[in-house]
Amino acid sequence: MYPSAKLVALVALLSSPAFVAAVPFDANVPVAVKGESCDSNTTPLGCTADGSSVALCNQGQWVTQACPSGTSCSALSCTWNEAIPSNAASSGSSSAPSTAASNSVRDDPGYTVASDPTSSASASGSASSSAESPAYSSSNPSSGGGSGGGSGDLSSITVAEIQKAVTDSGYPEPTSEVCQAFIDQWSKGDISSAQEAAMLIAELIWESGGFQYVSEIACSDGKSCAGSYATPGTDVSGKSYYGRGYIQLSWADNYKAASEDLFGDDRLLTDPDQVATDVKTAVAVSLWYWKARVHNAPGVSEGKFGAATKAINGGLECGTGSPTPAKRFAIYEKVLKAFNVQATPDSSGC
């Protein structure tokens, strides 16, 4: 079977001879060289070694798409290299501001970026999408609740406390609908303690610019990303599987896996837009990502916030001298305080 025209175009974008296939947590990272074969069943997605492009294993060969300016490949798709500023949108609004695009960048686990943040409303755009392969996204419940010592009572967290956590972190107040959606769905992320909930909310505040961005800015017009996340044989005709959600989901295989795990059907594969347009679904998908990729990562159950950061974006942030982990941790400290969790914040693990 020959590659599609879209994938031929992707091949033209090959820019580096070496590719690193992303794998979860501390596993050894397999290296594939341009021209070498790959196995889509075990390593379907990856990043170029220099982080400049996202890689897709198609018919046994690696093809890539270059990341937009200001981003690099992480968690299997393109992510902002800096943080979205806290003034990126008006309080209580999901629309992006009239600030310069160059100032509206962030660093997280994986979405393509936009050239103009003023072009969107509800689908305004994080730069990161969790393109983690379903092959690496199966959850192991052996770690239990993943609470960490000193965690508080999950049932005591209120909408007002989540809103305070966000505003104390320098972002506009999120809607009560967003906050309530988390409270109603903690179990979808295997969250069972206030401390792990604080870890989750802190990471998502960073990932989504304070819950302002729920899809890739560059893709919000429905046309700019056509073909960018193509998976022949899996995609539904006319649908685009760019990043959506507060920690964004991309690629058809991941939409399918999340849909089957959350709903027992393929609704997200056939209608991916609902991840960006329906708040409850956006939250559910973000919790699914946490359960699949972060919840059971080494150190998370011990309350090591850096371990959560490592699971999300460790390739670019941990051990690289990046200032981003400290920025994430500063948000976490504020969330713990807002949630009245008495645990001592622990930044280790990254």
TrEMBL record:
<feature type="compositionally biased region" description="Low complexity">
    <location>
        <begin position="114"/>
        <end position="142"/>
    </location>
</feature>
<keyword id="KW-0611">Plant defense</keyword>
<feature type="compositionally biased region" description="Gly residues">
    <location>
        <begin position="143"/>
        <end position="152"/>
    </location>
</feature>
<dbReference type="Pfam" id="PF00182">
    <property type="entry name" value="Glyco_hydro_19"/>
</dbReference>
<dbReference type="GO" id="GO:0006952">
    <property type="term" value="P:defense response"/>
</dbReference>
<feature type="region of interest" description="Disordered">
    <location>
        <begin position="87"/>
        <end position="154"/>
    </location>
</feature>
<feature type="signal peptide">
    <location>
        <begin position="1"/>
        <end position="22"/>
    </location>
</feature>
<dbReference type="InterPro" id="IPR005089">
    <property type="entry name" value="CBM19"/>
</dbReference>
<dbReference type="InterPro" id="IPR000726">
    <property type="entry name" value="Glyco_hydro_19_cat"/>
</dbReference>
<dbReference type="GO" id="GO:0016998">
    <property type="term" value="P:cell wall macromolecule catabolic process"/>
</dbReference>
<dbReference type="InterPro" id="IPR023346">
    <property type="entry name" value="Lysozyme-like_dom_sf"/>
</dbReference>
<keyword id="KW-1015">Disulfide bond</keyword>
<feature type="compositionally biased region" description="Low complexity">
    <location>
        <begin position="87"/>
        <end position="104"/>
    </location>
</feature>
<feature type="domain" description="Glycoside hydrolase family 19 catalytic">
    <location>
        <begin position="208"/>
        <end position="342"/>
    </location>
</feature>
<dbReference type="GO" id="GO:0006032">
    <property type="term" value="P:chitin catabolic process"/>
</dbReference>
<protein>
    <recommendedName>
        <fullName>Chitinase</fullName>
    </recommendedName>
</protein>
<dbReference type="GO" id="GO:0008061">
    <property type="term" value="F:chitin binding"/>
</dbReference>
<dbReference type="Pfam" id="PF03427">
    <property type="entry name" value="CBM_19"/>
</dbReference>
<dbReference type="GO" id="GO:0004568">
    <property type="term" value="F:chitinase activity"/>
</dbReference>
<keyword id="KW-0732">Signal</keyword>
<feature type="domain" description="Carbohydrate-binding module family 19">
    <location>
        <begin position="26"/>
        <end position="73"/>
    </location>
</feature>
